[in-house]
């Protein structure tokens, strides 16, 4: 585990953004459920729960959290984009898309990617 002094402030901020994105995803799932889209609501809720779980792994700079979080954020951005294109504009979908995009952009920077690759094998 990387100590707080070694963890870049950006990684802490991204962990918080990932958690907020997870909460936004859960709220969007609730909205999808209210309009009768059960399958999309369940899928969106699962992504939200996994994002909340993985935000702690990002905060701890765990290598295993890195790739899974990138995949989950990509799915989250895709769902938000589909929601924006097929339904009326919802604030949660817009926020979810922007937060997912920003988090992916930061996590894929070479220095940040290297930080997660250096994490100890015990943290996987």
How are the SSEs ordered, and which strands pair?
Blueprint: H1 9-34, H2 38-59, H3 63-86, H4 91-107, H5 110-117
Helix pairs in contact: 1-2, 1-4, 2-3, 3-4
Give a short overview.
By secondary structure, this protein is mainly α. The chain has helices spanning 9-34, 38-59, 63-86, 91-107, 110-117.
Question: Could you state the order of secondary-structure elements as H and E?
Answer: HHHHH
Give the CA-based shape: elongated
Compute the CA-based radius of gyration.
15 Å
Beta-strand segment tally: 0
Instruction: Give the number of helices.
Output: 5
Derived structural class: mainly alpha
Low-confidence stretches: none
Largest sheet: none
Q: Strand percentage, roughly?
A: under 5%
Helix content: over 70%
Mean pLDDT over the full residue set: 85
Tally of structural domains: 1
Distance between the termini: 10 Å
What does this entry look like structurally?
- The protein has helices at residues 9-34, 38-59, 63-86, 91-107, 110-117.
- The chain is elongated, with a radius of gyration of 15 Å.
- The chain contains five helices and no strands.
- With 124 residues, the chain is an all-alpha fold.
- The mean pLDDT is 85.
- α1 runs antiparallel to α2 and α3 (63-86) packs antiparallel against α4.
